[in-house]
Structure formats: C-alpha cells, structure tokens
Amino acid sequence: MRPIKIINGKIITPQRTINDGAVIIADNKIVEVTTLRTEIDDALEIDARGNYVAPGFIDIHVHGGGGHDFMDATETAFLEIAELHAQYGTTSMLPTTLSSTREDMLKTLTTYDAAHKKNAKARSSWACIWKVLTSP
C-alpha cells in the first residue's frame, strides 16, 4: 500500500495544534507528524488546504444513525450505524441504549457480539467500545 502524506493542515495533537504541518501514514498507521517538508517516494499527497487534521473522533454517546438505532438489535443496524459514523471521522463509539426490558437489553448485547465479529472479518475502519450502565 502506498504511503500517504497529508500536508498544509492544522494538525491536532495531544500537546498542541501544529499549523502548516504534515502527517505521514504508512501501513495504515500514523508514523510521523512534522512541521518539516518531508519527501516520500511514491506517497499519495493530500492537501488539507488549511483545514484541521485529527486522528479520529471518539463519540461517547451514540444511539444510532442512518435510520437505525442500536436498540433495533439487528446486525444490519449495528453495521450500518458504524459504517455511517466512520464516513464522518468517528473511529470509536460508545453505543448508547435506552431504558428497556432485560430481554431487549440482552438481545442488543448479543447482537453487538455478532456484528462485531462480522465487522472484524471485514477489517473495517471502525471499532465500538461497549459499556453497559445500569441503575437499580
């Protein structure tokens, strides 16, 4: 796979924002963030044109998307929600449920397991963080 070089961006890092920087990606991993003009043979160069560049968005409260809700408890709903959010830069999400019966909650959890296995086989660009919060 060709390396990717994103240039002319405002790069958000844990320490600061780097103006007019470059991000180098190789083997699907960020390998360098720099302010230097780096030449890389055969790299696909993407000009960010002054826009922000960030490694991904972690959404900690997601009920669904694309007309689906996680409480639909279908593999199609889970996979299409994740695919939709990945298109807009979400790299991880916390599926959020509604108050429901024990049976519906267990069905949703079981469906998550099945959808997660299918997604892992497809090697998609999304991941889900699953946490269940219950109250008495």
List keywords for this structure.
single chain, 136 residues, alpha/beta, Urease, subunit C, domain 1, five-stranded mixed sheet, three-stranded parallel sheet, elongated, disordered C terminus
Write the layout of secondary structure elements.
Elements: E1 4-12, E2 17-26, E3 29-34, E4 44-47, E5 52-53, E6 57-62, E7 64-65, E8 68-69, H1 75-87, E9 90-95, H2 102-122, E10 127-128
Parallel strand pairs: 1-4, 1-5, 6-9, 9-10
Antiparallel strand pairs: 1-2, 2-3, 7-8
Characterise the protein shown here:
This protein has 136 residues and is an alpha/beta fold. It folds into two domains: 50 residues, Roll (Urease, subunit C, domain 1), CATH 2.30.40.10; 72 residues, no CATH class. It is built from two helices and ten strands, in the order ββββββββαβαβ. The strands form three sheets. Strands 1, 2, 3, 4 and 5 form a five-stranded mixed β-sheet that branches. A three-stranded parallel β-sheet has the order 6-9-10. It has a two-stranded antiparallel ribbon with strand order 7-8. A hairpin with a 2-residue loop joins β7 and β8. α1 packs across α2. The radius of gyration is 19 Å and the shape is elongated. The termini are far apart.
